[in-house]
Fold:
Amino acid sequence: MKKNFSSATGSCSDNTPKWVDILTCIITCWYSVAHHIMKLLTLIACLGVIGATGCRQKNPALIGYSEPPFVAQLKTQSGLASPTESVRGGVRRLTGLHVFNASEASFGTLTDAQGIEELEFEATDLRTPAFGEIGKLTSLKTLTAINCQLLPEQLAVIQNLTNLENLELMFTVIQGPAESREKLLGELSSAEKQTRDTLQRSGVYENVIQAALLTDRAMPYLSKLTKLKKLDLINTYISAEGLKHLKDLANLEVAHFGPMGLTAETVTPLQGMTKLRSLEYFNADDGIVDALSKITSLEHLNIWSGDVTDIGASRLVNLKKLQRLEIRGNKMTDHGLQQLRPLPDLKYLDLSYAGKLTTNGIAQFLKLRPDVEIKYVRN
Structure:
């Protein structure tokens, strides 16, 4: 019997490889939870600051402040519209908006929000031409879309938002029947056919390949966003062809996306990201790990390392700043594990599903590195 487990943001099925299922479930199910926890913590912190400073309309410059009229209108056009404000030099101004379940009319209203730096959509259908109005908000530094209906082609509207520093988007391209993705793809180019064939030979399933091809087409839109510091593409994948378009994002510090079918040669665009601190979510082998070991700024590396052996482990010691290493499903032996001991800043090591490791090997590592927390789940 075919099983299918789904959430509002994605699905896990027995039609995809084990490592794709695990990562998809972890990313889609936990990302939204963590996102809301962070918002709650931020609210608590802000309340604490307000209480500590006694900010209760004592400053005459704040008296008489009124919410911009378009915010009131936006509240009638969406399920919820929450403004974010800042106070500097006694002047309060609108800096951001969180919009929940926005209607199509709300996109036109948002064009009045000139000057805002943060915009977050939640539970909103962004698959509408009206979403193009967002391209007029050129002051945006952060754009977030969580639990929304969003396809890669919608990225065309943000290519002119060249001040963006943080981009977090959760897609729905991998959801729905294969026929809908085939319709979106239409006729494949010769390069796309070659990518498809390469991924098929690697055992990648058709729904993942279709998602990667669709997302690849949108990657040129991101190539102009050279101020980006954080790029988080959730619930989708890109191929080596898509990754090529990100090579000029030299200011990236956090890159969370799902590259598929990479090799030691095609992973090289990441090497130009010399400020990269966190890199997550893709499959790797010894050659890829060797290439990644050149990104010496890395502090966090999260990969499904089904083909990483002791050779790859020996390359990781070049990452002297590494604090968190998640290298699940690897083929390392106890000898390879011991090669990770010299990493000076390492604090967390996830070795789940590493079938060749033994409890004795882990105990030996911890004896010499008791400051490291190890997570280990057997197959």
Q: What stands out?
A: The chain has a mean pLDDT of 85.
